[in-house]
Design goal:
This protein has 138 residues and is α+β, with helices and mostly antiparallel strands. It has 2 domains: 2-47; 57-137, no CATH class. It has 4 helices and 6 strands; from the N terminus they run H-H-E-E-E-E-H-H-E-E. A hairpin with a 4-residue loop joins strand 3 and strand 4. The chain starts with a helix and ends with a strand.
């Protein structure tokens, strides 16, 4: 949507400055539309959109592993190849077997892993019996 709006503003700008001489009433009309579109449509979406920093970083690794780096350590989740599928243990299993520092972060991990899966065309699955392998804790 933002690309469409930016294209619309660009087209309006070209019309305002390319086809009519300065001082023409249409020139001023399209110029004011350009300013209005920028102020009302594009600036609010780019300036006032809340950006939440990610807590976790994800990196696929060979042997069907997804390395997850968090604020206090790293661990590995299963990431199947072929049809990319990332497996996250259920919240109950996570609280029992997950890294100590990340046990309370399961809801955040779930949301961020879902977003990562969408961006990387992977399927997201919550698995009851999934193993977690801790690489290191800092």
């Amino acid at each position: 949507m933002r690309n469409f709006l930016a294209g619309l503003v660009l087209a309006t700008s070209i019309l305002a400055h390319g086809f009519w001489r300065a001082g023409n009433k249409l020139h001023h009309f399209f110029g004011s539309i350009l300013v209005l579109l920028t102020a009302v449509l594009i600036l609010p979406t780019s300036l006032f959109r809340p950006k939440t920093p990610s807590i976790f970083r994800f990196r696929p690794q060979w042997k069907e592993e997804l390395v997850v780096k968090g604020p206090s350590g790293s661990f590995i989740l299963d990431l199947t190849i072929g049809v990319h599928t990332a497996y996250l243990p259920s919240e109950q299993n996570w609280r029992k077997n997950g890294p100590d520092w990340a046990r309370d972060l399961w809801p955040v991990l779930k949301i961020e892993l879902e977003v990562w899966c969408k961006k990387n065309n992977a399927t997201f699955v919550i698995e009851e019996d999934d193993d977690i392998y801790v690489i290191r804790q800092i």
